[in-house]
Amino acid sequence: MVGIIIVTHVSLGEALISCAEHIMGRPLTNVGQLSVSKTEDPDDVVLKAHDLIDMLDDGSGILLLTDIYGGTPSNVSNRLIQPGRVEAVAGVNLPMLVRALTYCQQPLEVVVSKAITGGLEGVLYMLPNAAQG
């Protein structure tokens, strides 16, 4: 099963995991998170990430989901990419995470693709109910 690591500013990753567990109705044993604060040395975060990768990778690979591209969490994630083993996607949101979890039994490249489409398709302009009629 593909492991998923959420690398975000402060506690966003924890909140996403909590929401995803609620939606999925089960503990997420293949998911971990790294909270990055502006006071932390990125090299220390990379070391923690390597430990988490080793813990979650059963040979199926790891998908890193990070928040804002160009921020410290995405820069750390970029340093961890190993094509075909550790892949990264920026712009994490709850639909992206749930989609990745839904397909985590598939090969890593499928999980990456499903995460991206889930994230994109989860962003919608909402109209009031009367206007949809």
Automatic annotation (TrEMBL):
One of its GO terms (biological process) is phosphoenolpyruvate-dependent sugar phosphotransferase system. It comes from Silvimonas terrae. This is PTS system ascorbate-specific IIA component. The keyword Mitochondrion does not apply. Keywords: Cytoplasm, Kinase, Phosphotransferase system, Sugar transport, Transferase, Transport. Residues 1-123 form the PTS EIIA type-4 domain. Coiled coil: none annotated. CDD domains: PTS_IIA_man (cd00006). Its main location: cytoplasm. One of its GO terms (molecular function) is kinase activity. GO terms for cellular component: cytoplasm; membrane. Pfam families: EIIA-man. It is found in: Cytoplasm. The keyword Kinase applies. InterPro entries: Bacterial_PTS_sugar_comp, PTS_EIIA_man-typ, PTS_EIIA_man-typ_sf, PTS_IIA_man.
